[in-house]
Amino acid sequence: MIIVGGSSSRDLAAETASILGCKYIEAATVRFPDGECYTRIEEESLDDDVAIIQNTYPDENLVEMFLLQDAVKRAGAKTVTIVVPYFGYARQDRVFKNGEPESAKVMCKLLAMGCDRVVTIDLHKEAVLEFFDRPYKDLKAANAMGDYFKGKGIDMVFSPDIGAAGRAKMVGERMGIPYDHLEKKRLSGTEVVIQPAKSDVKGKSVLIVDDMISTGGTIRTATTQLKAAGAKSVTVACTHGVYVNDALKKMDESDIDELLSCNTLISKTSKISVAGMIAEALKEKW
Ligand code: R5P
After folding, report:
1. CATH code for residues 142-263
2. What are phi and psi of 233, to 5 degrees?
3. Which terminus of the chain has a smaller tally of CB atoms within 10 A, N or C?
């Protein structure tokens, strides 16, 4: 297998190739003066199974992925697996109001045209995977999170809502500590209310896990609630640190004691690597 790293995911792709002990090629991607993408695989011939690791968010990375799919095919790739650490448009998985597109389905159909298999990580809505007319795997970062925090003094794991309760369970079980979920109600795109925790958190070091942090509203409200209930410290970990606008600054100024994310999106918090699980998935026959 050959791993090709797109510009959004170079370190992750290089780390994955090193774990697999296989060849790594960094796509030579630059932008034309008008902003359009130029990319090139600087290799005579690929003649092997190829995995491209590249995000499809923001839009410019999606375009780079389309171009890379074509480039590796032209260079002789026998099969093409796309690994999309953070898959954009997964939240618009249906038509909510008349006149809207089914964005997630559009992206899946277009991406499927240039590949044989698809790997995603903690996709916001797993149902989206069914839009891929290709074999797919959605990897769960919970074990990587659990392993990262093992032995770091965490007493209990929470998810900020019931939808992510399964993630808190997986992380808690991996760490061998109790877990629970909070109850969240979304008021608007930026506002949420969270009910007080049912479990006793007084004096405890708590970890909140979520799939993504966008505005940070969910996590900041959950942290305030847990601290008000007496938690000694609140550490936060998400798979995808999207951090729109000034979300990181707001979280720096909040009650959160430590904030970490996986390296699906790169920022100062992306310290939990998902390379090991991508390597495992690429090794398997499926
Ligand atoms: C919700 O279903 C998700 O799991 C996240 O909790 C949510 O997308 C986070 O968004 P924000 O950071 O804007 O509150």
Report:
1. 3.40.50.2020
2. -150, 150
3. C
> What is the CATH number assigned to the segment(s) 2-140+274-283?
3.40.50.2020
The 10s digit of each residue's pLDDT in 160-183 is: 999 999 999 999 999 999 999 999
Q: Token pair of 34, please?
A: 């008008």
At residue 59 the predicted structure's pLDDT band, cuts being 50, 70 and 90, is: very high
- Enter the pTM of the model: 0.95
User: Which residues belong to the active site?
Assistant: 184
Interval between CA 213 and ligand 1 midpoint (Å): 6
Question: Residue 214: CB within 6 Å of ligand 1?
Answer: yes
Is the CB of 139 inside a 6 Å radius of any atom of ligand 1? no
Question: Would the CB of 213 count as within 6 Å of ligand 1?
Answer: yes
